[in-house]
């Protein structure tokens, strides 16, 4: 098919099989109009959706604008949280978003679909992420999925497919994205963040569990030293509290909410990784600590925990595992 890329886009490391599946569908006589891109958050689904949208709308001999400004690529994602955050977005800076994609956003998108594509015969609608659609938004979207406009293709990025209505899932062709292997993660980080020092790179791969996006978020928090200290606490304990003091210093006494969650997730992955070579007695304590860290990570964005006390709780949970490994009661 003309305009179909020959090779995997270079920023989609680890997803060769999914890209081949996509290309096979593109080469078919009648391509499905709605695609559900399913996998853990940060694994590369949004980047794949971007590349797939570019592939869809490309027309031989017609210059194509960048995807973010292409008239035939429509993006649905949470809006900035407020006017100040909108200004940050417009300035190209990181910004906070609303929790959900509103029904008004869906309806505004649907208004655009009544006209023909601008530069060619196809348009793409990327929803990132469909997990964040409000209930009314999902119901509104269903109308478009049931009766798609001519030449319109939907790419739904989904972290937890089970949260979508069965009526939505049933109208989509599913592409499943696996976590990357450690060597693939290394290649991805070498391309996406070649400036990382060795400690941060090693820690990011260990913490991210196969998701390059999660690795980059971890690296941005500069928690490599904290990760190293957490591993020491789990391995050797902390009977004199010295390692916990170092951990508090590495994380900071008053970390903001984003850093709190990052620290909790780092601790959770340190515990999860320690399970691989743990004996039976230690495994029980590790499982309990992991469950408590998961609960804290889930609650931290909502509840107004004292940051200092929360960091102390992380150290205490890790030290509890370490005491078990030392055989200390």
Automatic annotation (TrEMBL):
GO terms classed as biological process: DNA-templated DNA replication
Provenance organism: Novosphingobium nitrogenifigens DSM 19370
Ranges for region Disordered: 62-92
Record Pfam families: DNA_pol3_delta2
Source superkingdom: Bacteria
Protein name: DNA polymerase III, delta prime subunit
Coiled-coil region list: none
């Amino acid at each position: 098919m003309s305009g179909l890329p020959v090779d995997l886009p270079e920023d989609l490391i680890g997803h060769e099989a999914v890209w081949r599946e996509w290309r096979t569908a593109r080469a078919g006589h009648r391509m499905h109009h709605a695609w559900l891109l399913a996998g853990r958050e940060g694994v590369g689904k949004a980047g794949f959706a971007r590349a797939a949208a570019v592939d869809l709308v490309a027309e031989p001999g017609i210059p194509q604008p960048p995807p973010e400004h292409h008239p035939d690529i429509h993006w649905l994602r949470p809006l900035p949280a407020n006017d100040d955050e909108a200004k940050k977005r417009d300035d190209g800076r990181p910004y906070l978003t609303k929790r959900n994609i509103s029904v008004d956003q869906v309806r505004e998108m649907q208004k655009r679909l009544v006209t023909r594509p601008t530069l060619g015969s196809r348009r793409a609608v990327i929803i990132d992420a469909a997990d964040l659609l409000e209930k009314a938004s999902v119901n509104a979207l269903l109308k478009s999925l049931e009766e798609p406009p001519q030449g319109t293709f939907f790419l739904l990025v989904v972290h937890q497919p089970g949260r979508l209505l069965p009526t939505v899932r049933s109208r989509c062709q599913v592409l499943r994205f696996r976590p990357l292997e450690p060597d693939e993660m290394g290649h991805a980080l070498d391309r996406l963040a070649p400036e990382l020092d060795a400690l941060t790179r090693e820690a990011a791969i260990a913490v991210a569990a196969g998701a390059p996006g999660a690795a980059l978020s971890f690296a941005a928090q500069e928690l490599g030293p904290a990760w190293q200290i957490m591993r020491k606490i789990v391995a050797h304990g902390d009977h004199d509290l010295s390692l916990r003091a170092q951990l508090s210093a590495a994380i900071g006494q008053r970390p903001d909410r984003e850093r709190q969650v990052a620290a909790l997730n780092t601790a959770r992955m340190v515990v999860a990784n320690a399970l691989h070579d743990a004996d039976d007695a230690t495994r029980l304590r590790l499982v309990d600590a992991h469950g408590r860290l998961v609960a804290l990570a889930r609650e931290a964005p909502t509840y107004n925990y004292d940051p200092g006390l929360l960091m102390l709780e992380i150290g205490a949970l890790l030290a509890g595992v370490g005491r078990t490994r030392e055989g200390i009661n």
